[in-house]
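User: We ran a pulldown and think these components assemble together. Before we commit to crystallization trials, I'd like a predicted model of the whole complex to look at. Sequences follow.
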Amino acid sequence: MSMTTDASTNSAAEAGKPGSGPPGSPGRRRSGSAAGTARLASALVSPTLLVLAVVVMYPILAALYQSLFVSGQRLDAQGFVVEGREFVGLGTYADILFGPAAERFWNAFWNTTFFTVVTVTLEAVLGMAMALVMHQAFRGRGLVRASVLVPWAIPTAVSALLWRWIFAPDGVANAVLGHQVLWSSQALASKIAVITAEVWKTAPFVGLLVLAGLQVISREVHEAATVDGAGAWRRFWHITLPLVKPALVVAVLFRMLDALRMFDLPFILIGQQKDSVETLSMLAFSEATNVHYGPAAAYATLLFAYVALIAFVFVKLLGADVIGEVRSQVPRRGGIRSRRGKGSAR
Amino acid sequence: MTITARGPKRGVTGRVLPGKRPGRTLAEIATVLVAATIAFPLYWMVLTAFKPAGQIQSTDPRPWTLSPTLENFRQVFTVDNFGRYFLNSVVVAGVVVLISLVLSFLAAVALTRFRFRGRTVLLVMILVAQMVPVEALTIPLFFLMRSVGSVAPWFGLNHLGSLILVHLAFSLPFAIWMLRGFVAAVPTELEEAATLDGAGRFRFTWQVLFPLVAPGLVAMSVLSFIHAWNDFLFAKTFIISATENQTLPLAILVFFKPTGNDWGAIMAGSTLMTIPVLVFFVFVQRHLVSGIAGAVKA
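Assistant: Here's a predicted model for the assembly, 644 residues in total across the polymer chains.
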């Protein structure tokens, strides 16, 4: 349960209830209409579920099934060419993890992990810094805030093209550095190019989410701490950071889910089948376009499992109470009380 | 709730403390520097779009041009069907926004205000849908759309419906998660009061809940719009032969040539592609921050 200080969580039964009311509100529409509620709720959710089932669930299940087969032309044990599909069970996975395809898979796996760790860390730090700056009151703040968010609003394909142009051999990046760097072919340089473009594009988004979190911290807390003699650094470390933590955790979680699936930025910025930047999504795509449906489906399944695992571990470790957060929340003026409750509960 | 909408502003206007001048100036300088760093690549894009052909590929690129030209833009507009591509992109993004607005609102209401068995399971399922690597699943989706096309041609390959369906599915999970906070922030007393006044559940939902959740809907619609407008991969995969149904990013691809890319036209096309997003963004920017604040607060 995410809230420790709030009176509305006075009983376990109440706590599990959607939008559970403020203290003292009586249980509503409980008896009699429970079946009606369920029916209405399922009517409201079913269009969404239908769309998700068709476009998200079916393909992942199809991929899971397909990954158990190999297809296309190959030689059988007697040296004859065979066509069509053959059931291989987990053979494709074994090939990917330990066999002939292992090198390319692990390379893509580490690229994906490296990009995710580096970009999300940079985005969290820079986004936090940007939010702190944007939170200050000064003239033209609205304009600055809007302009800082523009990269995020720009289509990924466009920003990838833009950075490809900047990192071109005769582009402005080399001119500014005064040094010829082959961004698209040197391993480290191309990684740096992808990371720069990704951080440029999404740090503002993290900044926006953190800014939103900062804006609900009441000024009195900071004033009280100042009166008590706490310096700026201490105030940041002991007040601001714990209070924006829920916002930051949610931002980082969603950013991680996106970064692990990174595709079009390296695809357009650097190109296909470059070892230095090939991510798991790109690997699956490239195998599928080469009509290796079995391996492609296996890569997609492994990536999905990896993303789900990371999300699960992250939620467990950092106590991002993503489900309970809304369940227990109660609107109140001084947002600080419920915030503190959330920050301390883990 | 009004609290949601007003909370952030209150925090901001009361920011200026006496005796904090030096810090403020520092923050202003830092902000301008940050904004300039962020803006530079964009400036470079627009600049390249306006540069004459001779100045674009040069060993000594200059951060200005003395002879701006519209030639690159003219090049983009001469691409066959450019207007059509643009319209297609607008239709796809617009329809995705409208449908996801309705569907995510209904789902968020059901998942937040109704208590029923399996609610948590549904929520987790929707979060898991957000984790599916869609780019890696392009090919199963391609086959799916091919079979869908034989039943419902409008949603099949080569039709805008396939793009709409796909983007709808990708924007719904995050939208629902975001809206949940807003719906939950509306006090239950309001619903009780409305019921006492004789308003049924539907009237309450549309006349009370919907307007109160509006900031969240605005923020959500920006995200959906950007998502659908951004798309490159699915447009490239699903729209194979029907060139009249292609979307904007594919128009820019024309300028990538084996003989050397026409960066002036590519940047002009990119600039044109960015403008609608920016216009939409400027209109809703104010609501966007308070909108996301509401979601985070929740």
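The radius of gyration of chain A is 25 Å. That may be worth checking against your pulldown data before setting up trials.

User: Thanks, that helps.
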